[in-house]
Amino acid sequence: MTHRPLVFAHRGGADALPEHTLGAYLRALEEGADGLECDVRLTRDGHLVCVHDRNLKRTSNGRGLVSGKTLAELEPLNFGSWHPGYPADEDLPDLSRLLTLDRLLTALRECGRQVRLLIETKHPSRHGADVERRLVELLRRHGLADGRPDNLVQVTVMSFAALALRRVRTLAPAIPTVYLLEILPPGVGRGKLPFGARIAGPGVGLVRARPGLVPALRQAGHQVYVWTVNEPDELEMVLEHQVDGVISDRPGFVLERLAKV
Ligand code: G3P
Ligand code: CA
What are the DSSP calls for 186-225, one per residue? Predict the structure, then answer.
């Protein structure tokens, strides 16, 4: 295969293991994923935690909103036992403990190989730039906000909200950004992305519905990362489009297909 897309484990490879746990992320890297996709939210006391949903109910034994709890209140919860891939009779902190972005960055820097990390800021509001501000502060503390190509962890920030991309661009212009797309906002179909976003992140459904979209974005000089590519027909479609990144809950399945020339 001449054009090989990067393979990203969506939420750490959410199909096989509990999403957003350190164990899931490390397993995906062992399998050979080039990178990870991670959602982040703020706790009540301002810590960035790797949790997709606003509410704790689906992925933990807690109740209520992530944003309504302090880190100390979230730490004792089990974030793994809800998932069918969680071994019933074992105590595996890496598969059940809440993951803070700080811990994830530390673990990835200790991996000893280059890892690409796509960080999606979840629901930035018009009235507070806190998620992006704290994210950039944390990345600076880890020496990862300068976009240097030799950093062991290559960070890219993603959002469905153009507002979030603007904030990241203002706070840390060297960090590449992805504009996530579920529907097609004006201009994007002609290859225009807001606020210096280098990469477009359309959903696989949008790519199927708009076959001209990927060529237009690539023609305009953008890379294209598609989510969430879990099925064989979806994978074949995005490979035909020669996309630059495939974000999947099943990174092992994508890697296996890519290994067949
Ligand atoms: O990679 C983008 C994708 O993760 C967006 O959807 O809901 O899984 O965060 P969601
Ligand atoms: Ca996401």
Answer: TTGGGT--STT--EEEEBHHHHHH-TTHHHHHHHTT-EEE
